[in-house]
Design goal:
The protein is mainly alpha-helical and about 140 residues long. It contains six helices and no strands. It holds the Pfam family PLAC8.
């Protein structure tokens, strides 16, 4: 009979959490995103959703939810897409925060939240630079 083998249990992984690259109200860090969010907020939200590899139309759920709540006479509704995207983005990039903070920001500063998420994605996933290289060969005689 063999003695039982000792099993090594991995300890909790300590992942260093980072801050957001820009603050919630840092519109002047990226005026283009700020203008995009101000003039066409739903389009900005759909862009963020697409960059997160989700359905582009997902943020439209927020309009349906808040409209239905308003029709029922309830003045307050949690925008599910804004909240879910914020939580997902924060977890994906290991950004400091809490579910309660995400909830408050998503409910009270929805458009600022979408702008902050857009800036974060732009800074973390810049568009690739295409470099064209031509082969030049010379014939030496």
């Amino acid at each position: 009979m063999q003695p039982p083998m000792a099993q090594v249990q991995p300890g909790p992984s300590q992942v260093e959490e980072v801050e957001w690259n820009t603050a919630l109200l840092d519109c002047f860090e990226d005026p283009g995103t700020c203008c995009y969010g101000f003039w066409c907020g739903p389009c900005l939200a759909c862009t963020v959703s697409g960059r997160m590899k989700e359905c582009y139309c997902l943020p439209l759920c927020d309009y349906c939810t808040t409209s239905a709540m308003a029709l029922c006479g309830l003045p307050f509704a949690v925008p599910p897409a804004a909240y879910g995207m914020r939580v997902a983005l924060r977890h994906k990039y290991k950004i400091k925060g809490s579910l309660l903070n995400d909830l408050c920001v998503s409910c009270c500063c929805t458009w600022c939240s979408w702008c902050q998420m857009h800036r974060e994605l732009k800074l973390r996933n810049p568009k690739p630079t295409v470099i064209s290289i031509q082969n030049v060969s010379t014939l030496h005689l």
